[in-house]
Design goal:
The protein has 467 residues and is α+β, with helices and mostly antiparallel strands. The protein folds into 3 domains: 7-126, Sandwich (Immunoglobulin-like), CATH 2.60.40; 132-193, no CATH class; 206-461, Alpha-Beta Complex (Spore Coat Polysaccharide Biosynthesis Protein SpsA, Chain A), CATH 3.90.550. The chain is built from 9 helices and 25 strands. The chain has helices at 91-94, 128-133, 220-223, 258-271, 323-339, 366-379, 383-398, 424-429, 441-461, and strands at residues 7-20, 29-36, 39-42, 53-61, 68-77, 80-90, 101-106, 115-126, 152-155, 160-165, 171-174, 177-180, 188-193, 206-211, 232-236, 248-249, 277-282, 285-287, 300-303, 311-314, 350-353, 358-362, 407-410, 414-415, 432-434. The N and C termini lie far apart (46 Å). Pfam families: C2 (PF00168).
Length: 467
């Protein structure tokens, strides 16, 4: 995949006099923006204001032919949206080859809807040549408060924020620093010292999504021990709630819990700009939150084991018992290609399958996961095929070169989908694993004790974090 036109940093600053003439009340306004209709990003919704202030930044990696930025402003209603206005910016005319673009854009009326107002937009464009000529200095200012598709990473042990811009190559996250795979023009790292609590939970900007295939309210008190480490917890259990919301759902199907994950991602994108990612894990799985401080939160995390691994194998080698799943996966890929032509990169010669009881998706891939879920869920594709297939498609589509994955393996997770001989030592030694028999008094106590140790550490260092 070639990003011939470099990167575009878009700042949606604010709006003024945003008013749909057909609406009496003030707007609950948000901006949807894209460089092609297949991949859209959006701001948060600002409630009850004609003059909303967003100050949100977005990054687009421009492919050849993507020469326009499209802006659509809506008034959000319950279950619907009313158009306020739309505009487009000709990047060739106003942005490419220039030092910057800072303007108020007037919103022309949408046919059939009288609209008015302006939106304040700042654009910065960086090309590969500029990166080369800069001698390694960063071209993009570090993302600030709300980053929907940004490149800022916290190195919790060093207390530094690493602002990373990649042009044509990737970096490997080793320990506490980003190391280039090889010397390459246009690759640079900017390290900025900031004041940060070095021992804050590495998951403190993450939603913890906890799934149980049976309604087990009695185990919620144990799962609550995870709360201090996450921005919020979401409980997913059959018939637990009547509808899906930010913190709970009642999805019944054991085959397709990824549907609830997708719906919660939509809620996060609309209403929770501070959430950087979603960490899914099963009730019977375990994670040691502080053991994830060496992981890159802008990448996907997925388990790899020796027995039932995250693996994509040639379709010619698929075992007999998986041929039904192979057929379903092929149908899903075909439907994806028809529904989203030229958007996703897929390899029809492989078949992906894995246990999917633990995984992490960063916010920047939420839209991809949401749209791919629509196809897999409609087809009823089982979680253990659907999730690794979707992750493989996202990986092939979003990697900056054909050789550098956006997926980091959780190679040290213990067990697999069906392993049930966990012992207390596994909980201590491994940062994650599956599965724990919570009816086993000894294991349950060991699990509780392990989390209590981390909670005590968190309380001692950051007393306000776990209140």
């Amino acid at each position: 995949m070639s990003y011939a036109n470099g990167t575009l940093l878009v700042t949606i600053v604010d709006g003024r006099n945003l008013k749909d003439e057909d609406i009496v009340d003030k707007n609950d306004a948000y901006v949807e923006l894209c460089v092609n209709e297949d991949y859209k990003q959006r701001t948060t919704t600002i409630q009850s204001s004609k003059n909303p202030i967003w100050n949100q930044k977005f990054i687009f990696y421009l492919k050849k032919g993507e020469d326009n930025l499209y802006l659509h402003i809506y008034d959000e209603d319950v279950g619907d949206k009313d158009p306020i206005g739309s505009a487009s910016i000709d990047l060739k005319k106003h942005v490419f080859g220039r030092t910057g673009y800072d303007a108020w854009i007037k919103l022309p009326a949408i046919p059939g809807v009288r609209s008015k107002g302006e939106i304040h937009v700042i654009l910065e464009h960086s090309t590969f040549r500029q990166a080369k000529e800069s001698g390694g200095e960063t071209m993009l200012s570090p993302p600030t408060n709300h980053v929907v598709h940004g490149t800022t990473h916290c190195c919790c042990s060093s207390g530094k924020t690493i602002s990373l811009v990649l042009f044509g190559v990737a970096a490997i996250y080793l320990g506490y620093s980003f190391v280039p795979i090889a010397a390459s023009r246009g690759y640079f790292i900017d390290v900025i010292e900031v004041q940060r609590d070095k021992t804050a939970s590495p998951l403190h900007r993450t939603l913890g999504f906890i799934r149980c295939n049976k309604l087990q309210r009695e185990d919620i008190s144990l799962m609550e021990k995870y709360r201090p480490f996450f921005a919020e917890l979401h409980y997913s259990m059959p018939n637990y709630t009547a509808e899906i919301n930010y913190t709970a759902d009642g999805v019944v199907s054991e085959k397709t819990p990824y549907y609830a994950v997708s719906e919660v991602m939509k809620i996060i994108l609309r209403q929770y700009p501070a959430i950087d990612g979603l960490f899914y894990f099963n009730f019977e799985a375990w994670i040691r939150p502080f053991r994830f401080d060496d992981m890159n939160p802008e990448r996907i995390w997925f388990p790899v084991t020796t027995k039932i691994p995250f693996i994509c194998i040639p379709v010619t080698t698929v075992p007999q018992w998986d041929l039904g799943l192979l057929h379903s996966a092929k149908q899903v890929k075909n439907e994806t290609a028809k529904t989203y032509p030229n958007r996703f990169v897929m390899d029809d010669s492989i078949f992906c399958r894995s246990w999917a009881d633990i995984y992490y998706i960063p916010r920047r891939f939420f839209n991809d996961f949401i749209d791919l879920t629509k196809i897999s869920y409609t087809a009823g594709l089982h979680q253990e095929t659907a999730v690794p297939t979707m992750i493989n498609i996202i990986d092939l589509t979003r990697r900056l070169t054909p050789f550098h994955t956006v997926v980091d393996p959780l190679a040290d997770c213990w067990g697999h989908c069906c392993q049930s001989d966990t012992v207390p030592a596994n909980l201590v030694e491994r940062r994650c694993g599956h599965k724990i028999d919570l009816s086993n008094v000894t294991l349950r106590k060991s699990f509780s004790d392990v989390l209590d140790l981390e909670i005590a550490f968190l309380k001692r260092i950051s007393p306000n974090k776990s209140k």
